[in-house]
Known about the structure:
The protein is of the alpha/beta class. 27% of the residues lie in helices and 25% in strands.
Amino acid sequence: MTITTDTLDTLTVTAWRDHDPAACDLPGMLLGQLEIQGGGSAAVRQLWDQGARRVELPGTVDLTDTAAAADTVRTLCLIRDLTARAVYVDWRLRTGPDPDAWRPLNHLHPPLEIEGPSDPEEVVRRWRDEHYLCKCIWRNGPGFVQIRDRRWGELHRFTAEEPHYHQAITLLEHGAPVADLPADVLSDFRAEQLIGEVGGLAWWYPYRIQRWIHTAMVV
Length: 219
């Protein structure tokens, strides 16, 4: 079972044609409020094709609210895939008291605000200062899947050749129940911090890059 479009409410976002705030104030740059059904890559393609280069998401992504897990996972997958296209995302995050809860998310476009850490402004500043594109990505090779992860300040690589790992990633791209994952895959992904979990649902942290900052061989 995955999180499908018919299990989620329509999400309304505000979008602009440019990421620069000054440019966004110019006539014709505001696309207005756009409705998104579902989430992840299909929703991002919809926004991209409509010209969105900056997107503001409503509400707060709340990692502590297990009752809203499906909406939380859908929104995080949307932010992940918008980040992959280098679209600026204005969003807000609530993590709870764990001071390091934001770190597995630091490959995503930085939020405007964060609630939970003792010094939220410092966390947002660090997130912005340390963020760059391609920080945590995955790709398909001939007969293998590889993740390249720099969220912790150095390169971590994880490579899997078994088909059921690829199947699990496909399942996780839009979020899925933790119980649907094979035990060995779940154990490995947790150990490498490649999945997020909230309310019995899991989602895939890395993104498939859409905008390269360097040549593929450098990344």
